[in-house]
Design a protein that fits this description.
Blueprint (H helix, E strand, L loop, with lengths): L2 H4 L5 E5 L7 E13 L2 E8 L4 E5 L9 H4 L12 H13 L4 E4 L2 E5 L10 H7 L11 H11 L2 E5 L3 E2 L2 E2 L5 H13 L19 H17 E2 L7 E2 L2 E8 L5 E9 L4 H4 L9 H9 L2 H6 L10 H4 L10 H15 L3 H18 L3 E3 L4 E3 L4 H10 L3 H9 E5 L4 E5 L2 H32 L4 H5 L2 E8 L10 H31 L13 H8 L4 H10 L5 H12 L8 E2 L7 E5 L4 E5 L3 H6 L4 H8 L4 H10 L42 H17 L3 E7 L12 H10 L2 H10 L3 E4 H8 L8 H6 L3 H12 L6 E3 L3 E4 L3 H91 L7 H8 L5 H7 L4 H6 L19 H11 L8 H5 L6 H4 L18 H8 L12
Parallel strand pairs: 6-22, 7-18, 7-22
Antiparallel strand pairs: 1-2, 2-3, 3-4, 5-6, 8-9, 10-11, 12-13, 12-18, 14-15, 16-17, 19-20, 20-21, 23-25, 24-25
This protein binds adenosine-5'-diphosphate and magnesium ion.
Adenosine-5'-diphosphate binds next to helix 6 and strand 11.
C-alpha cells in the first residue's frame, strides 16, 4: 500500500479552508501523479466543484462511510483532526451527545434537557458492558461499578478569552452519581429525575449533597448560570455485597473572593439570593434582611438573576436536602443567621479621614452583624481599622487606611463563609459515613467521582487561575500517563513487538510550578516575609526562573508589567502578580480570629472550630471500636488558612495547602483505574444543538484527545479481535474457503488469508494473542476492498433480479394479451350467433309467410281454373330468394370482422338452410356449427399458430391498456416504474375468472 495508492483518484480527503478557524471541506482526488521520489501532485475537486492542486503536501484522508460517525473514535482508520471533529459533529447533529475516544467518553453539552436519562434507560444500562449499547455516561458508570474503578470527570480546555465552564461536568457528575446510587430496579414513571424514587436513605443522602453544595458553592458566572466554584471529589463506598454503605465528600479551593466581589455579569453564591427569595417574611424580618437583595453591597455589585434560576424554588430544594442530610431546622436557622451576618458585614460603612479609616460606633450594619456573630462590637471595630505589629519586645497597634480596613472586613466575611462551607461538608460527611466513619470502615470498595474546575484563561489572571491551572496541569499529566500506559499495556499483553514511544510530557511546566525552586515555593517564601510584596515576588521569580532551561515554559511577557507567563499544555497564560501574596496568605488578622473563636454564638464557634481542624488530621475521628477504613482518603482539603491558634506553628499558605491536597489526590488516583469524561462546550452562547467546529477542535486539542490520537497513530491504532475482523472481511477471500473456516471458527486463519488477499504489507500489521493490530489506514483499504466486493455482488444481484422480473413480466404480458383476445373472440362469437340466429329466424318467418301466401294463391288459382281455365304455376324458390332472402355470407362477415382466426373457425352456410324451424326438427348445419363454436373454450384456440395470425392491427387489439404495454425497447432495458407498478399490483383482480 503506497502513498500513491492511498491517494488514488476518487479518494476522499479533507481540505483546510482559508483560515483554520473555519475547519475543513471535503474534496475528492481527481488525479494523483508522482513528481519526485517522495512528493505527489494532487488535483482535488471540492464540494463546490472547484479544483485545487497540491504538490508535496498531502491532505488528511477521509474515513470510509462506515467509520465516519463511529461511536468510538479509536476505530477510525484515518485518525486525524478533521476526522475526529467530523465524527463528533455528525453524531451531535444526530442528537448523539456521547462518543467514546478509547477510554475517554466525550460528552458534548446539549444545552437543553435530553431524554437520555429516563428510568428505562437507566435500567437498560444496568449490568451491560461498555460497548454493548450506545455510548453513554451510564455505560462508564456501570463499568466503574463492575470493576470498581475510580471515575474521573475532569474538565480541560480553552480558547482565547474563555474557559470551558458550562461544558457539563457537574451535570455529568450528578448523573453518574444518580446512576450509581440509583436502586437496581428504578421507578418506572417517566420523570427523568425519578430514578431516586425508592432509594435507600443513604442513596437519598448522597443525592442530597448536590443541592446543598450547589447552593453554597455554585454561582452564576458569565459562562455558566450554575458554575461550581470549588473542586469536588465524592467517594461512593460499597460493602462486600456491592451495596452502597456511604460516601465521602472532599472539596477543593472554594473561590472566596466572590463573597465580597462580583463583576456585573456574575453573582455571589446562590444561597444568598435563595435566602432572600425563599425565606418567609417573618424570618426575613428577624434576620433584618428583605427580599430586595440590592440593599446589600455583597449582592448588588453583580448582575441580575438569570430567568432560568428560580431562587425561591431552589431554596426549598436546599432546605429539603439539608433535612435529608440531618441538619435540623434549628441548625438551619443558625446557618441563615450567619449568612445574614455576612450580608450586614459587607454593609459596614468604612470611611477615611485624612490618615486613617473610621467606622461609626453606631453603624447599624455593624451592630446587626456583631449581634448575629456574637462578637464584641468594640473589639471588632478596633481590629478592623487597626493592625497590631509584634516586634521583639512589644506589640504596636498602627492605623489602617479605609481600603485596608475594607480588606480586613472582607477577609472576615470570606473566612467565615469558607468555614461555613467547610462545616457543611463535614456535616454531610458525618451523615454519609456516620460520626466515626463507620460506613467507611465497613466499605470494601469505592468509586470516586471527581468534578474539578477546568483550565481558566481570562483577560486578567490571578492567583485563583494559577491554582486552577496548576491543578489541571497535574491532572493532564495523570491523564497522559494513564492513557499511554494503558495503550501500551495492550501491546505488552498481546505480546506485540513494539518500541515504546514518548508522549508530549508536561512535566517541565509542573516542575516550574511546584518544584523546589518553583513558583509556589518562591511565593510561600515571599508571603512569610513581613515586608514581602507582589513586586519583590515577581523580581525573585524572574531571577530564579528566567533561565534558558525554563525557556519553553516560563516567559516574561513583553507588553505586560508585573506579570509572568507560563506555557501550559493547553495554552500560554499570563498571570498578573497583583494580589498574589495577599491571596496566598489569606488569613484574617489573629485578633479578629480570636474574637470569632470566642464568639458568644455557639453555632459560629462550632463552625470555626470545625474548619480550623488542622490540615492533614484525619477527617473522621478514631472510631471507639478501633475500626479503620481500608478506603484511601485524599485527606482533608480544607483551604481555610489556619493560624495554629496562638501557637508558633508556621501558618500554611493557601498555595501550600492546595499543593498538598492535590498531591494526595494524585497519589490516590494513581492507585486506581480511571475513567475519563471530557465535557465539551459546542458553542459559547449556550445554544442547544449549535456546533462551532473551531471551538470544539480547540477543546479536543486542549483536552489531549488529539494528542492521544497522535500517539495512537504512531503505533497500531486499530485493534480488532480475530473473530470481529474475520466476520467482517471474510468476503474478501475465496468463497470456497470462507464459509468452511467460519464454520470451524478458524478466525485467525481467515485473518491471515484476508491480509494476504488484500496485499497488506507485513510492516502494516502484527498478530497479537487474540487481536490483529493494524497501522493507520489499513482498515480504510480493507473497507474499500470490501465495498468493491459488495458492489460487485450487488451488481450481479441487481441484474439477476432484473432478468427474473423481466421474464415474469413478459409471461404476464403474454397471458394478458391471450386472455384479452380470447375474451374478445368469445364475446364477438356470441354476438355473431345471436345476430345469426335472429336473421335465420327472420328468414324462416319470411319463408313461412311466403309459403302460406303461395298456398293461398295456389288455392285461389285452383278455384279460378276450376272456374275459368288453368294458368302456369310460379316457382316458390325463385320468388322467396327475390323478395326476402336470408343475409348473405359476405354481409355477415362484414358485420363481424374478427380476423382470420375467427374466420377460419367459422364455417358459414353458402345459403340459408331450407330446413324447418328449430323446434321439433333436426338443427341445420349452420346451427350446429354455431353451437359448436359457442361451446368451444377460449383456450382451445390459443395456439401459437392462431396467435401468430391474430389481428394485431385490429381496432379491438389496439385497445390493450397502455399501462400493460411493455416499455419501448423493453427487451434489453431496465424495468420502468410503470412496469414496477404492474408487478406490484396487476390491473385486474387476480381472483376474477375472466371466463364468467
Ligand atoms: N447532559 C446534559 N443535559 C442537558 N443539559 C446539560 C447537560 N449537561 C450540561 N447541561 C447544561 O449545561 C449547563 C452547564 O453545565 P455544568 O455541568 O454546570 O457545567 P460545568 O460544571 O462544566 O461548568 C447546565 O446548567 C445545563 O443547563
Ligand atoms: Mg461545574
Amino acid at each position: 500500500m503506497t502513498t500513491l495508492s492511498l491517494y488514488a483518484p476518487g479518494t476522499r480527503v479533507y481540505l483546510p479552508r482559508e483560515s483554520e478557524e473555519e475547519g475543513w471541506i471535503t474534496a475528492e482526488v481527481v488525479t494523483c501523479t508522482k513528481v519526485s521520489a517522495d512528493a505527489l501532485k494532487l488535483v482535488l475537486r471540492d464540494e463546490s466543484g472547484q479544483e485545487t492542486t497540491l504538490t508535496g503536501t498531502l491532505p488528511p484522508l477521509r474515513n470510509p462511510p462506515l467509520l465516519e460517525s463511529a461511536d468510538d473514535l479509536a476505530t477510525l482508520s484515518h485518525l486525524n483532526e478533521p476526522s475526529v471533529l467530523y465524527a463528533v459533529q455528525s453524531r451531535y447533529a444526530q442528537r448523539k451527545i456521547y462518543t467514546y475516544s478509547g477510554i475517554v467518553l466525550l460528552a458534548v453539552n446539549p444545552f437543553e434537557p435530553v431524554p437520555l436519562y429516563t428510568p428505562e434507560i437507566v435500567k437498560s444500562y444496568i449490568g451491560r458492558n461498555k460497548g454493548e449499547l450506545e455510548p453513554h455516561l451510564f455505560a462508564i458508570a456501570e463499568d466503574a461499578r463492575e470493576v470498581r474503578w475510580i471515575f474521573l470527570n475532569s474538565r480541560l480546555k480553552l480558547t482565547d478569552g474563555c474557559d470551558e465552564s458550562g461544558a457539563g461536568k457537574t451535570e455529568s457528575a450528578k448523573l453518574v452519581m444518580r446512576f450509581i446510587a440509583a436502586p437496581k430496579a428504578p421507578a418506572t414513571n417517566a420523570d427523568q429525575n425519578s430514578f431516586v424514587d425508592g432509594a435507600s436513605l443513604v442513596e437519598q443522602q448522597i443525592q442530597a449533597t448536590n443541592p446543598i453544595l450547589e447552593a453554597f458553592g455554585n454561582a452564576k458566572t458569565t459562562r455558566n448560570d450554575n458554575s461550581s466554584r470549588f473542586g469536588k471529589f465524592i467517594q461512593l463506598l460499597f460493602d462486600s455485597n456491592r451495596q452502597i454503605v456511604g460516601a465521602r465528600v472532599r472539596t477543593y479551593l472554594l473561590e472566596r473572593t466572590r463573597i465580597s466581589y462580583q463583576t456585573t455579569t456574575e453573582r455571589n453564591y446562590h444561597i444568598f439570593y435563595q435566602l432572600c427569595a425563599g425565606l418567609p417574611s417573618k424570618n426575613l424580618e428577624s434576620l433584618r434582611i428583605s427580599a430586595d437583595y440590592s440593599q446589600f453591597h455583597y449582592l448588588n455589585q453583580g448582575g441580575p438573576s438569570s430567568a432560568e434560576l428560580s431562587d425561591r424554588d431552589k431554596f426549598h430544594a436546599t432546605q429539603d436536602a439539608l433535612n435529608i442530610i440531618g441538619i435540623d431546622a434549628g441548625k438551619q436557622t443558625s446557618i441563615f443567621q450567619v449568612l445574614a451576618a455576612l450580608l450586614h458585614l459587607g454593609n459596614i460603612n468604612i470611611t477615611q479621614t485624612r490618615t486613617e479609616a473610621i467606622i461609626e460606633d453606631e453603624d447599624p450594619a455593624m451592630v446587626q452583624a456583631m449581634e448575629f456573630l456574637g462578637v464584641n462590637l468594640t473589639e471588632f471595630k478596633r481590629w478592623t481599622i487597626k493592625k497590631q505589629i509584634t516586634t521583639r519586645s512589644e506589640k504596636i497597634a498602627t492605623t489602617l487606611t479605609a481600603p485596608q480596613a475594607v480588606q480586613v472586613r472582607d477577609s472576615i466575611s470570606r473566612f467565615v463563609y469558607a468555614c461555613l462551607f467547610e462545616w457543611l461538608v463535614t456535616a454531610i460527611n458525618e451523615s454519609l459515613t456516620g460520626k466515626y466513619g463507620d460506613a467507611a470502615a465497613r466499605a470494601e470498595t469505592h468509586i470516586g467521582v471527581l468534578d474539578i474546575y477546568g483550565f481558566e484563561h481570562f483577560e486578567k489572571n490571578s492567583f485563583e487561575q494559577f491554582c486552577i491551572n496548576y491543578a489541571n496541569e497535574r491532572l493532564q499529566h495523570e491523564f497522559n500517563t494513564y492513557v499511554f500506559k494503558l495503550a501500551q499495556d495492550d501491546y505488552v499483553k498481546e505480546k506485540i513487538n513494539w518500541t515504546f514511544i514518548d508522549f508530549d510530557d508536561n512535566q517541565p511546566a509542573i516542575d516550574l510550578m511546584e518544584g523546589k525552586l518553583g513558583i509556589l515555593s518562591i511565593l510561600d517564601e515571599e508571603s512569610r516575609l513581613p515586608l514581602g510584596t507582589d513586586a519583590s515576588f515577581l523580581q525573585k521569580l524572574n531571577a530564579q526562573l528566567d533561565k534558558p532551561a525554563n525557556k519553553a515554559v516560563y516567559k516574561m511577557p513583553k507588553f505586560a508589567n508585573a506579570a509572568f507567563t507560563i506555557a501550559h499544555y493547553a495554552l500560554d497564560v499570563t498571570y498578573q502578580v497583583e494580589g498574589f501574596l495577599e491571596k496566598n496568605r489569606d488569613t484574617v488578622p489573629e485578633e479578629q480570629l480570636a474574637l470569632l473563636t470566642a464568639s458568644s454564638n455557639p453555632f459560629l464557634r462550632e463552625v470555626v472550630d470545625t474548619a480550623l481542624h488542622r490540615v492533614g488530621e484525619p477527617v473522621e475521628p478514631p472510631s471507639p471500636n478501633g475500626a479503620v477504613s481500608k478506603i484511601p482518603d485524599p485527606g482533608r482539603t480544607s483551604l481555610v488558612g489556619t493560624t495554629g491558634r496562638g501557637t508558633s506553628v508556621k501558618k500554611p499558605t493557601l498555595g501550600s495547602i492546595f499543593k498538598g491536597s492535590l498531591g494526595t489526590l494524585m497519589d490516590m488516583l494513581r492507585t486506581t483505574n480511571v475513567h475519563y469524561i471530557r465535557c465539551l462546550k459546542p458553542n459559547q452562547h449556550k445554544m442547544p444543538w449549535e456546533f462551532h467546529p473551531s471551538q470544539v477542535l480547540a477543546q479536543l486539542r486542549a483536552a489531549g484527545v488529539l494528542e492521544t490520537i497522535r500517539i495512537s497513530t504512531a503505533g497500531y491504532p486499530s485493534r480488532w479481535t480475530f473473530e470481529t475482523f474475520a466476520r467482517r472481511y471474510y468476503i474478501l477471500i475465496h468463497w470456497r474457503e470462507g464459509p468452511p473456516l467460519i464454520k470451524r471458527e478458524q478466525w485467525k486463519r481467515i485473518t491471515v488469508l484476508v491480509l494476504q488477499k488484500a496485499g497488506i504489507d507485513k510492516s502494516k500489521h502484527q498478530f497479537g494473542e487474540t487481536k490483529i493490530f493494524l497501522r493507520t489506514g489499513v482498515l480504510a483499504t480493507l473497507e474499500a476492498l470490501r465495498s468493491a466486493r459488495l458492489n460487485a455482488v450487488l451488481f450481479m444481484q441487481t441484474n439477476m433480479r432484473r432478468l427474473i422480473a423481466m421474464r415474469k413480466y413478459r409471461h404476464f404480458q403474454r397471458s394478458v394479451v391471450a386472455i384479452q383476445s380470447h375474451w374478445r373472440g368469445a364475446t364477438a362469437r356470441k354476438a355473431f350467433h345471436q345476430a345469426l340466429e335472429k336473421s335465420l329466424k327472420e328468414a324462416e318467418a319470411a319463408r313461412e309467410a311466403e309459403a302460406a301466401k303461395a298456398a293461398k294463391e295456389a288455392a285461389m288459382a285452383g278455384r279460378e281454373s276450376r272456374a275459368g281455365g288453368r294458368k302456369t304455376p310460379t316457382s316458390i324458390n325463385d320468388r322467396s330468394t327475390a323478395s326476402t332472402g336470408s343475409p348473405s355470407k359476405t354481409k355477415i362477415r362484414k358485420m363481424f370482422s374478427f380476423g382470420s382466426k375467427e374466420k377460419s373457425a367459422l364455417v358459414l352456410p353458402d345459403q340459408p338452410s331450407p330446413e324447418p324451424p328449430l323446434i321439433g326438427r333436426q338443427p341445420s348445419r349452420l346451427e350446429a356449427a354455431s353451437k359448436r363454436l359457442s361451446r368451444r373454450s377460449w383456450y382451445d384456440t390459443s395456439t401459437s399458430s392462431s396467435r401468430a395470425k391474430s389481428p394485431v392491427k385490429s381496432p379491438n387489439r389496439a385497445k390493450t391498456p397502455n399501462h400493460l404495454a411493455p416499455p419501448a425497447g423493453h427487451s434489453s432495458k431496465m424495468p420502468t416504474p410503470i412496469y414496477d407498478q404492474f408487478m406490484k399490483k396487476p390491473p385486474w383482480n387476480s381472483s376474477t375468472n375472466l371466463l364468467h
